[in-house]
Amino acid sequence: MDYTHCTGRAAMGRAPGAPVRDGIPEHGRVPKYYAVKAQVSELLDDLGEGRALPAERDLAVRFGVARETVRQALRDLLLEGRLRRSGRGTIVAGPKLEQPLSLASYTEGVRRQGRRPGRALVGLERFPCPEALAPDLGVRAGEPVWHMERVLCADDERVGLESTYVAVGRAPRLDADFEPDTSFYGYLRERLGIVFGDADERLETVLATPREALLVGTPPALPMLLIHRVSRDAGGRPLERVRSLYRGDRFSFTAHLRG
Length: 259
Fold this sequence. Notes:
Blueprint: H1 4-11, H2 32-47, H3 56-63, H4 67-80, E1 83-86, E2 89-92, E3 97-100, H5 106-111, E4 117-128, H6 134-137, E5 144-154, E6 157-167, H7 174-177, H8 184-190, E7 196-207, H9 210-216, E8 223-233, E9 238-247, E10 251-254
Parallel strand pairs: 3-10
Antiparallel strand pairs: 1-2, 4-5, 5-6, 6-9, 7-8, 8-9
């Protein structure tokens, strides 16, 4: 089969190993909004983190384009995490938080980057374990389990939502002994002597539900990174199931791979 019509032009005029021109079509005609986006990116570098961006109408006059063109460029920069909403305005965002795909807790990952981690409790409830959840927690259907939901914060900025399920038998005094704004992994390790062994994770991109978007403080259309995790202790016993939702504009994930 001849693939020249798909790949031939991409290969022409570019030396082997040369980088692909990010976002620029091969015909070289740059969309107007993309040119504005590049100009606004330079402006962000000059302004610095935390500074307010000029109003859309002022940017439109500055770059000689329609406000809708500016709006499209800003939407891209918001999704990429270069900008973030603050009150009724838009400000320059700091670098994304890098969270390792490992058994390290959210708290540990944020602290390593010099940020202040925090969590705000949405709810903690105890209920009989549904049959579908029981294998992940190592209990029989109907046995009591905890469900804890918390908003994740970094330097008081809401960045995610975490939903944790654990058997009451593994953490019987969770409602009395645990401080919801601290690390759950630290509590298990230091108060209960539970050591994590391994976990299975699945990562996908989703759109937040209206309720989730309200809790995290984002527009419903903002892409989110969703991690499902089932953890076991050092003895291989099921321990917890966690659903963690992270803002796609504020987080990236890293992993160390070995061959």
